[in-house]
From TrEMBL:
InterPro entries: Acyl_Trfase/lysoPLipase, C2_cPLA2, C2_dom, C2_domain_sf, cPLA2_C2, LysoPLipase_cat_dom. GO terms for biological process: glycerophospholipid metabolic process; phospholipid catabolic process. It is found in: Cytoplasm, Cytosol; Membrane. This is Phospholipase A2. The N-terminal C2 domain associates with lipid membranes upon calcium binding. GO terms for cellular component: cytosol; membrane. It comes from Homo sapiens (Human). It is a peripheral membrane protein.
């Protein structure tokens, strides 16, 4: 866990030759930034002085690893210098970077061990926005001023020979150009009784990473339709990707023994492959690989923008007619309301399991009898309140019908015997359901079982409805728009340190913090750099109910927060030590505006004891995991200055771009009620322009305790 402890003074300057951009207000929709050049970055790790001793009996066997995830997921490293307190490497490493994204280089100092895992001594986080273009920047990082420990590194930022790339951004997230590599394998010859073997093809930096490719036996022209059955790899065009092909083992007999021989993998850089060009790569003596790279469409499947989606805007126009008519009747107006006179009224419900489910039925019935239900344009809920909402929206005209039969049905399910839901025959049905869900491509967790259990406890039969099916209840503006709320967290981090609102509606699901949304039917599918690469069938609504009310997703540290007012003790023992430092440039600096520069930070990991303690406290055994539709996207260089980037004041990871959601493989979603038992965030989005919010509170305990206390 990271925590900034002090403010430091940064003495470097901005290097962006194409910086004339973000003086404008934050965009409310995705826009094409045009052509933006890439740059070549050379990092020379020179030396280190007074390296701290990791082992008690010997000096440190020191090496430095470099990781720049916006340029490559591969970690590079220097050679190891053994038993030396002042190692000198003088090694250079090259990266191709895009200046429009936030590039933070991680320099990790490690002690190599032959038997045990390498010791991680510290990591320096350096914002490359500080570099001067076309000028060498020689930097000394004071790692431990008391012990005179320092790391000396030289940076050089130059033009890249690669052509500029087209970016799509909303001012917070950036989508870069993606290419699709089609790979077709062909057998050159076929011996009798020879069993065909798959080639293992890997494209580093690609979404698919590794695939098995079955060679084709029939002769095939590389330019013909043979690519229709080819394996596809999606990779960022301006990453330095390579294709690696592993040759199958070949066997031959020699006397009475049988030996096997395995040739090393064959590699080929992809930057020399032009769009549409077919390249043939010989693989051993028996195979050849035909490769063709084509650009992916620039149109994204992820909507980057902070505005409301067109479907929701259309719904609001239709709903205004219903609301205006209802208000005229309730307020006994003589004239019709004009369009700009119709207020936007929302109903907000809290969580609370069965208590909130039953109470919400009663509140909605009361609003219906007062003719106020037709005055609302939104209904938001979380946890148990979503059980009521999902049940009602199975009927496209529920709000115009008497709710008393629905309440009677809910009462029947609440009081019925729940034990049959756990009988062996029912559990076998659950097992088969979960097996099928896993085959579809979902990561099955205990939350999915919880969703099936909710379905059997609150219904009589299997419910085939999905979230997107609720659009039928909105087609004419006849019902309020439902919005379901959860939070996105990290598996190894407390909710106090990292949390992000995640909203679901029948139209879209997404993170308002980043301005990124996808159609609700695509939730759970796999995306890369904003493009849909693998569609997975939409989940049934029962799985969504399990997610929205996932009461089992807390870790021990979250449970401590619920029962105590402070977690200072645990943070002291579970967080890594982090401090900002003053990097000392040896060369003269060029004064520029540095509003978007992050402080240079040193992260010192905790001991094995504190790391074990943290893992126990922060591990979530039953959290819901879904494929991250932000995968591959990168943060804009000015994302922290964008007014639309909404964040909590007390979270600590927003200033560490390499650790935010766009870098995660999966979303970890859990019930919001355990942290903030309120569903107001979607209604406070300025784009929704809510005028009045009716708050339905189902929290446990007294609802009037605060007002009943006499003033002190």
């Amino acid at each position: 866990m990271l925590l900034r402890q002090m403010h430091a003074r940064v003495s470097h300057s901005l290097p962006d030759p194409c910086q004339a951009e973000d003086s404008r207000p934050s965009a409310t929709c995705a826009l094409k930034e045009g052509l933006s050049p890439c740059h070549l970055l050379t990092v020379r790790v020179i030396r280190m002085k007074n390296v701290r001793q990791a082992d008690m009996l010997s000096q440190t066997d020191c090496f430095v690893s470099l990781w720049l995830p916006t340029a490559s997921q591969k970690k590079l490293r220097t050679r190891t210098i053994s038993n030396c307190p002042n190692p000198e490497w003088n090694e250079s490493f090259n990266f191709q970077i895009q200046s429009r994204v936030k590039n933070v280089l991680e320099l990790s100092v490690c002690d190599e061990d032959t038997v045990t895992p390498d010791d991680h001594l510290l990591t320096v986080l350096y914002d490359l926005t500080k570099l001067c273009f076309r000028k060498k920047t020689h930097v000394k990082f004071p790692l431990n001023p008391q012990g005179m420990e320092e790391l000396e590194v030289e940076f050089l930022l130059e033009e890249s020979p690669s052509p500029p790339e087209t970016l799509v951004t909303n001012g917070v997230l950036v989508s870069r150009q993606v290419s699709c590599l089609e790979v077709h394998a062909q057998s050159r010859r076929r011996r009798k009784r020879e069993k065909m073997k798959d080639l293992l093809v890997m494209v580093n930096e690609s979404f698919e990473n590794t695939q098995r490719v079955r060679p084709c036996l029939e002769p095939c022209c590389p330019t013909s339709a043979c690519f229709q059955t080819a394996a596809c790899f999606h990779y960022p065009k301006y990453f330095q990707s390579q294709v690696h092909v592993e040759v199958p083992k070949s066997h031959w007999s020699c006397g009475l023994c049988c030996r096997s021989r395995k040739k090393g993998p064959i590699s080929q850089p992809l930057d020399c492959l032009s769009d549409g060009q077919v390249m043939t790569l010989p693989v051993g003596e028996s195979y050849e690989l035909h490769m063709k790279s084509t650009p992916c469409p620039e149109t994204l499947d992820v909507r980057l923008g902070f505005s409301l989606c067109p479907a929701e805007l259309e719904f609001l126009q239709k709903r205004k007619v219903v609301v205006a008519k209802a208000l005229k009747q309730v307020l006994q107006l003589e004239e019709d309301l004009q369009e700009d006179e119709v207020p936007l009224i929302a109903i907000m419900a809290t969580g609370g399991g069965t208590r909130s489910m039953t109470s919400m039925y009663g509140h909605l019935l009361g609003l219906q009898k007062l003719n106020l239900l037709d005055c609302a344009s939104y209904i938001t809920g979380l946890s148990g309140a979503t059980w009521t909402m999902a049940t009602l929206y199975r009927d496209p005209d529920w709000s115009s019908k008497n709710l008393e039969p629905a309440i009677f049905e809910a009462r029947r399910h609440v009081v019925k015997d729940k034990l049959p839901s756990l009988f062996p025959d029912q559990l076998r049905k659950f097992q088969e359901e979960l097996r099928q869900r896993s085959q579809e491509g979902y990561r099955v967790t205990f939350t999915d079982f919880w969703g099936l259990l909710i379905e059997t406890c609150l219904g009589d039969e299997r419910n085939e409805c999905k979230l997107s099916d609720q659009r039928a209840a909105l087609s004419c503006g006849q019902n309020p728009l439902p919005i379901y709320l959860t939070i996105n967290v990290k598996d190894d981090v407390s909710n106090q340190d990292f949390r992000e609102w995640f909203e679901f509606s029948p139209y879209e699901v997404g993170l308002q913090k980043y301005g990124a949304f996808i159609p609700s039917e695509l939730f759970g599918s796999e995306f890369f750099m904003g493009r849909l690469v693998k569609r997975i069938p939409e989940s049934r609504i029962c799985y969504m109910l399990g997610l929205w009310s996932s009461i089992f997703s807390l870790n021990l540290l979250d449970a401590w927060n619920l029962s105590h007012t402070s977690e200072e003790f645990f943070h002291r023992w579970t967080r890594e030590k982090v401090q900002d430092i003053e990097d000392e440039p040896i060369l003269p600096e060029i004064p520029k505006c540095d509003a978007n520069i992050l402080e240079t930070t040193v992260v010192i990991p905790g001991s094995w004891l504190s790391n074990s303690f943290r893992e126990i406290l922060t591990h979530r055994s039953f959290v819901s995991e879904f494929h991250n539709f932000l995968s591959g996207l990168q943060l804009h260089t000015n994302y922290l200055q964008n007014g639309q980037f909404s964040r909590w004041k007390d979270t600590v990871l927003d200033g560490f771009p390499n650790q935010l959601t766009e870098s995660a493989n999966h979303l970890c979603l859990l019930d919001t009620a355990f942290f903030v038992n309120s569903s107001y965030p979607p209604l406070l989005r300025p784009e929704r322009k809510a005028d009045l919010i009716i708050h339905l509170n189902y929290c446990a305990g007294s609802q009037t305790k605060a007002s009943a206390q006499p003033p002190s």
